[in-house]
Design a protein that fits this description.
heterodimer, A: mainly alpha, 9 helices, elongated, B: alpha/beta, Rossmann fold, 24% strand, globular
Chain lengths: 253, 260
């Protein structure tokens, strides 16, 4: 088949195969008891182990947003507490989820694709299947569930650390006091913000882990194939986060 | 009993198996030989349903594994142990955990019973004190033996060996061949050995199937192999002649001289 035709049909093929993989994973949920231990391991690897880097990124995001908001908005006509009113919703509605998603695309998405890709090319997945084990249930279900569970948790941590980072940078640069920052945030608090962020985190958690599992599970070739899968998983996860972010904003705001 | 009936398989328009049939008798050791890339491993994957034929059937105890659902296929697969070419050991686990994995997953044995079973498997493959070693700390021969111990952990009815001696030195290859022979005898297992190593074949096999140019070219007992006048088969065997047992070499001296 000419390569141009293949290039056109490949995305449809991928979408179809991804849907079938996810439906098989969904059907495997009834065997969750068998994969419970693996699920716990993935909770730690995807969630707990990601806390330091997510916290670091969130702290700097909060700090930079604070400084830039102060630079752009503060004038004799606008009270400094507006900084808190801008920074906190920015973190809860956008930055907390997106920064966490991007960090996990690189850290978790690439790792999942490399791990499953290596298992594929070294016949470890065939070995699981040959034993009579459901490899999709054993490998994919725990990772996707752990992503769905842990991304919202990491999002909450990112928001809290981001707000602290904003307050610290505000104090250090003297643009606004902690009291005014909090006062501004409370005055303009929008309860929908954290819900919106949690929904995003949930969706991003699914996209990152599911797409990376799909790419890793169907890796072809040797070390080169694993390398390509790893890069593809990280890039695809980032792209899908951007697309999903826009779609959710259009649908929910 | 395993029956392969007229199977065809193609990948991206390239035919790998064409009208291949084979009956594997219970309790026998069946070798499947052929050049690299001849479709041996593809045939092996059909036997446990890792691949489904484009045409034809694979029957395990008269059940067509190409038409049953996934849950039934998994039950049938549990009757098989498979030794993959590179061992396919799970690198997230150490050697002990690899062998214990099927026992912990498919049985309700206690930790103590699992430990006892793992030790029995290690004894069967003549390994000891390697339980806590990481898989990357094992030599090629040890990896194969740990993988073999894992394959026999659930005491399968059938065991499939994919290139069991590839990449091993002659001495270690002999050890693996002895193990295959010994396990077939001790555990009364039906063995299927996919290989291009004629030295192994002549040591361990009861029957030999030769795949050439995507087709089942020749099928018979080892004695029939010795007597065969098929030129393509003889050419394949002759390529291995320098390591083949003296019996075969003497039988075929005439043929060798003729070719020279």
């Amino acid at each position: 088949m000419p390569s141009i035709v293949l290039r056109i049909t490949q995305p449809f093929f991928d979408i179809g195969r991804f849907t079938m993989l996810m439906s098989s994973a969904f059907m495997s949920l009834r065997e969750m008891g068998t994969y419970w231990q693996n699920f716990q391991i993935q909770l730690v690897r995807i969630g707990i182990d990601s806390i330091p880097i997510v916290a670091l990124a969130a702290a700097f995001s909060g700090a930079v947003t604070t400084v830039q908001t102060a630079y752009q908005l503060v004038s004799p006509l606008i009270p400094p507490r507006i900084i808190g009113a801008v920074v906190v919703p920015s973190l809860t509605m956008e930055l907390g989820a997106v920064v966490t998603g991007f960090i996990l695309s690189g850290r978790v998405g690439a790792r999942i694709a490399a791990e499953l890709g290596t298992m594929r090319v070294t016949e470890q997945i065939d070995a699981l299947e040959a034993m009579g084990l459901n490899s999709i249930g054993y490998l994919i279900v725990p990772r996707v569930l752990a992503g769905i569970v842990m991304l919202p948790v990491l999002y909450v941590a990112a928001c809290l650390v981001g707000i602290v980072g904003g307050i610290v940078s505000a104090e250090l640069t003297g643009v606004v006091s902690t009291g005014e920052f909090i006062q501004g945030a409370r005055e303009h608090w929008n309860f929908f913000g954290p819900y919106f962020g949690l929904i995003k985190a949930f969706v991003f958690g699914f996209l990152i882990t599911a797409v990376s599992c799909y790419i890793g599970y169907y890796t072809k070739g040797g070390a080169d194939g694993v390398g390509r899968s790893t890069t593809r998983a990280a890039v695809m996860s980032c792209v899908l986060i951007l697309v999903a972010d826009l779609i959710l904003a259009i649908l929910l705001l | 009993m395993i029956q392969v009936q007229n199977i065809y398989k193609s990948f991206s328009g390239r035919t790998v198996l064409r009208d291949v049939s084979l009956d594997i008798q219970e309790g026998s050791t069946q070798a499947i030989i052929g050049q690299s890339g001849s479709g041996k491993s593809v045939l092996m994957k059909h036997l446990i349903g890792l691949l489904r034929p484009d045409q034809g059937r694979v029957l395990v105890d008269d059940v067509d594994i190409g038409t049953i659902d996934y849950q039934q296929l998994r039950k049938i697969r549990r009757q098989f142990g498979v030794l993959f070419q590179g061992g396919a050991l799970f690198d997230s686990m150490d050697a002990f955990e690899n062998i214990a994995f099927p026992l912990r997953t498919f049985t309700t044995k206690t930790d103590e019973e699992v430990r006892h079973e793992v030790q029995k498997c290690l004894d069967l493959v003549r390994l000891s004190n390697i339980g806590t070693k990481k898989t990357d700390e094992l030599s090629g021969g040890m990896r194969k033996r740990v993988a073999l111990a894992r394959a026999i952990a659930l005491r399968p009815r059938y065991i499939i060996y994919d290139e069991p001696t590839s990449g091993l030195d002659p001495e270690t290859s002999n050890t693996i061949n002895d193990l295959i022979k010994g396990l077939a005898h001790q555990l009364e297992i039906t063995s299927i050995v996919v290989t291009h190593d004629m030295h192994s074949v002549l040591q361990i096999a009861d029957r030999v199937a030769f795949i050439h140019n995507t087709r089942m070219h020749w099928n018979g007992t080892v004695d029939e192999l010795h007597e065969s006048s098929d030129q393509i088969l003889r050419a394949f065997v002759k390529a291995n002649e320098y390591i083949i047992a003296p019996r075969y070499s003497s039988n075929n001296q005439e043929s060798s001289e003729a070719t020279q």
